[in-house]
Amino acid sequence: MAPPSAQKARRAPTALLAAATATLIASDVAVVEAKLPMRYASMDRRDLFHRLWSREGQRHPPPVSSVEYPAPRFVPQKQDHFDGSNNNTWMQAYYVNDTFFQAHSSSPIFLCVGGEGPPLDGSAVVDSVHCNVAVEWLQETGALMFALEHRYYGCHNDKACPVANLSEPGALKFHSSRQALADLASFVAFANEKYGLTSENKWVTFGGSYPGMLAGWARLKYPHLIFASVSSSAPVHAELNMVGYNDVIAEAYSTSVQGVGGSEECRQAITDGHATIGSLFKTEEGRSQLATLFGGDADDYAKHDFQVNFAGQGVFVFPGQGNDPACTEDFCNIAKVCKFMTDPTSTKTPVEKLAYLKKSTVESLTRELSSAEVKSTVSETPTPGYGSGDQLWAWQTCTEFGFYQTCEVGSKCMWTQGLATLDEEMSFCQSDFNIPKELVAANIAQSNVDYGSLHPDGSRVLYVNGGIDPWKANSILSCVGPELPAFMVPGSSHHFWTHPSLPTDQESVVAVRSKIRRVVQHWLDQHAEQIIHT
């Protein structure tokens, strides 16, 4: 297969804008008909506020013409690393930042691991959401940096996909974390040869969220290739019923540490409002009241599917895993939401406040979307059947990880309890992929056996988690041993420390970046001392 032609690697968030439109604007008055719940389109789903609004009040990124990121390069990969009779190959995209690297030096190699989020581009090695701890350390260390796109998530380009058509039966059979880890191992061998690297150039993997899982597992599975890893916000414990996700969200809305701005009063107000909505669903008068407050037809509020979409995961896109204490838009973070929900001068009931939050957000995002100029410099043809790509992470939840975020009666969940049940949340596994619940559970159990869950055996993996990140419910929060340390970042959301540094960052975020570098440098120095005394 010939390598795809190199393209400038700045991609505009067209799929994001479409998702925001469908999810928020349409849901103002009606249920959006969709097979896959949006939250299972990507584990690293940022709150829509933070996807559309950049920090410090600047809503739009710089024009694409003002930033030129490294163009993609391509490495041949086996379609199936575990079938010696399968000789099919495909071309995988990777990116390079060699600004500070000196050939034939002993400088380390930083590898930013790709994952399930928006299509990877050259920003991953220059201005990275998942790996900027490494990017900002390049000059000091003289490191060479790579970023490798995850298989299948690169199928936005039909020349860089493991299969020719994603809609064909069995097209996703080669899509798994195990194959992705083998891709990483194969890439290291390829890069060592192509870039003239030696055993003195130690590879360190970085990643946040699912890429954080892969970054850590790459070290544990291939210790002869990967020297160390920084695994940020990585829920390494696969779980069918992830009650903890919404429980931690509730805890976040009751904490004030590091400027988060939550309170117990706030959490209770949100909980009470959703509980009242659950009661109003049950009567004709109540449904009419909801239609008056939130809009739409009162008859819709009697329909189960409508109720699930409307209140099962919150009637408003509550900032949670993407909370940014420094954002400036109305209701864009926990502090701003809680200030409104607990305003002592307001005469509104909790339900009326929730209705105001929802309507104001829809109106604001409608303006945002209508004024946004979405352009792309990339000319690509997606693989047939790619669509939005949302089915790719959904497949991995059914075949490997689960992570179905429920809101069960009696839990800490703030939403209308009893709507987002396990059967409801994972129904697409059967309907879309013909994978029954029992097999999903078995797949999850096997993943925990393969990777060690919360008790891995290995060395030089640093686990870092945010104090209000809902994914910490399934992450390693304390040291497993002297060679598997763990840091907690008070008040931080989902791998916030891996983003580019800003003056507005929380003190805990700034501090942990330094701690991460100290740990990795200590490991590198230990290796250097061993060489000296050999």
Task: Explain the overall architecture.
- The chain is of the alpha/beta class.
- 37% of the residues lie in helices and 10% in strands.
- The strands form two sheets. An eight-stranded mixed beta sheet has the order 1-2-4-3-5-6-9-10, with helices on both faces.
- α6 links the parallel β5 (203-208) and β6.
- α8 crosses α11 (334-341) and α8 crosses α12.
- The radius of gyration is 23 Å and the shape is globular.
- Mean pLDDT is 88; it is low at 1-34, 46-66 and 373-378.
How is the largest sheet built, in terms of strand order?
1-2-4-3-5-6-9-10
Helix content class: 25-40%
Q: Helix count, per DSSP?
A: 17
Tell how many strands the DSSP assignment holds: 10
Fold blueprint:
Layout: H1 14-25, H2 48-52, E1 73-78, E2 89-97, E3 109-113, H3 132-135, H4 138-141, E4 144-148, H5 177-194, E5 203-208, H6 210-221, E6 228-232, E7 239-241, H7 243-252, H8 264-280, H9 284-294, H10 304-311, H11 334-341, H12 350-371, H13 390-401, E8 402-404, H14 422-425, H15 427-433, H16 437-451, E9 461-466, E10 486-489, H17 507-532
Helix pairs in contact: 1-12, 5-6, 8-11, 8-12, 13-16
Name the descriptors.
534 residues, alpha/beta
